[in-house]
Specification:
alpha+beta; Immunoglobulin-like; six-stranded mixed beta sheet; CD80_C2-set; calcium; immunoglobulin domain; cell junction; Cell adhesion molecule 3
């Protein structure tokens, strides 16, 4: 009895004295450490072997609960699940980062309507937290009250949703070839968001995103700037600043700024009709484009002074064209940003007709009419063929009596024709018969 009773004392002495022995950790687990060389090494090895091969230690591994880390967007709902294989007739418990008990089994411990029970069984305890706030972030603990108490940790990460970005730095209008600088800012993201720029579908290279921590110590404010030279093609373009963050899950969160660019006008002269003839009416349209739109038009003809016309209307009208109207005409469009001049050479053609779009139009109409007539002819041919076949089928459907009548009438016509022929030959037959009945004439002797 002495030797067995002394073993627990030796174990306790070895664990408390030897620096390389087996110690009990804070979470209730035995931890085996490296053994130091010394005269007690064989005893320490025996102690370590005895502890780890204990059936109670093997069973305790099944009593260890497990959880998983969770990430949730602020305002969303997170579910915390704790499971255990061998509950040892004990209940599971969830605690928040402040070590306040939330649920002990199926019993609510903290009065917070956002926290609800999802599932409670001897092997699982799951709870949900709705309308999650940034303050809910932290390490949640699942415990099972066995001997010793065993715990598992679940780290809940709350993502702060960035606010819609704000663009500043734009003035009322920009002149062509001026340099524009715009600034963009977004607050409330966690972790810090990233900002990007684009002009329409074209990406703009902005400055790197600057990050500043918000006063709450949890979220961040990000900002960025972009500088570019404007052209006349940028008039009416949208400069877009977009915020990229994992909490948005691919959704677009951006702000656009429409810019206005002032530039000198451009002009193009368009004749109506395109091929003018002598005696026709002609309009020369001076089509100006610019920002602002041209407000004044000046018409000139080379070789003639003074100018033909200065007006706010862009068209030069010829009521009745003559050969003398041929020449080179110029139109100058003027706005607050400057002026631009375009030229057009007018050649008045003879009044004789020439191939035009109208003749082509008539040819197309004639071709369509001929095609329709051709289709009608084909339809008439098929219709006549159908009627002939249909009439033949009707004749085949006649009854036997009709065919007999037709046969008799044909036979009667043959007999009637035979009778007519017989009657016509009757006088000839009678004459021949009379000649045969008369006696022969006596012969006269010759002298």
């Amino acid at each position: 009895m002495g030797a067995p009773s002394a073993l627990p004392l030796l174990l306790l002495f070895a664990c408390c004295w030897a620096p390389g022995g087996a110690n009990l950790s804070q979470d209730g687990y035995w931890q085996e450490q490296d053994l130091e060389l010394g005269t007690l090494a064989p005893l320490d090895e025996a102690i370590s072997s005895t502890v780890w091969s204990s059936p109670d230690m093997l069973a305790s591994q099944d009593s260890q609960p497990w959880t998983s880390d969770e990430t949730v967007v602020a305002g969303g709902t997170v579910v915390l699940k704790c499971q255990v294989k061998d509950h040892e007739d004990s209940s599971l418990q969830w605690s928040n980062p402040a070590q306040q008990t939330l649920y002990f089994g199926e019993k609510r411990a903290l009065r917070d309507n956002r926290i609800q029970l999802v599932s409670s069984t001897p092997h699982e305890l799951s709870i949900s937290i709705s309308n999650v706030a940034l303050a809910d972030e932290g390490e949640y603990t699942c415990s099972i009250f066995t001997m010793p108490v065993r715990t598992a940790k679940s780290l809940v990460t709350v993502l702060g949703i960035p606010q819609k970005p704000i663009i500043t730095g734009y003035k009322s209008s920009l002149r062509e070839k001026e340099t524009a600088t715009l600034h963009c800012q977004s607050s409330g993201s966690k972790p810090a968001a990233q900002l990007t720029w684009r002009k329409g579908d074209q990406e703009l290279r902005g400055e790197p995103t600057r990050i500043q921590e918000d006063p709450n110590g949890k979220t961040f404010t990000v900002s960025s700037s972009v500088t570019f030279q404007v052209t006349r093609e940028d008039d009416g373009a949208n400069i877009v600043c977009s915020v990229n963050h994992e909490s948005l899950k691919g959704a677009d969160r951006s702000t656009s700024q429409r810019i206005e660019v002032l530039y000198t006008p451009t002009v193009m002269i368009r004749p109506d009709p395109p091929h003018p003839r002598e005696g026709q009416k002609l309009l020369l349209h001076c089509e100006g484009r610019g920002n602002p739109v041209p407000q004044q038009y000046l018409w000139e003809k080379e070789g003639s002074v003074p100018p033909l016309k200065m007006t706010q209307e862009s068209a030069l009208i010829f009521p009745f064209l003559n050969k003398s109207d041929s020449g080179t005409y110029g139109c100058t469009a003027t706005s607050n940003m400057g002026s631009y001049k375009a030229y057009f050479t007018l050649n008045v053609n003879d009044p004789s007709p020439v191939p035009s779009s109208s003749s082509t139009y008539h040819a197309i109409i004639g071709g369509i009419v001929a095609f329709i007539v051709f289709l009608l002819l084909i339809l008439l041919i098929f219709l006549g063929h159908y009627l002939i076949r249909h009439k033949g089928q009707r004749c085949e459907g006649c009854n036997q009596r009709t065919w007999e009548e037709v046969g008799r009438s044909a036979k009667d016509r043959q007999e009637e024709a035979g009778c007519r022929k017989a009657l016509q030959r009757l006088p000839q037959l009678l004459e021949v018969s009379e000649k045969e009945k008369m006696p022969p004439a006596p012969s006269v002797p010759t002298l």
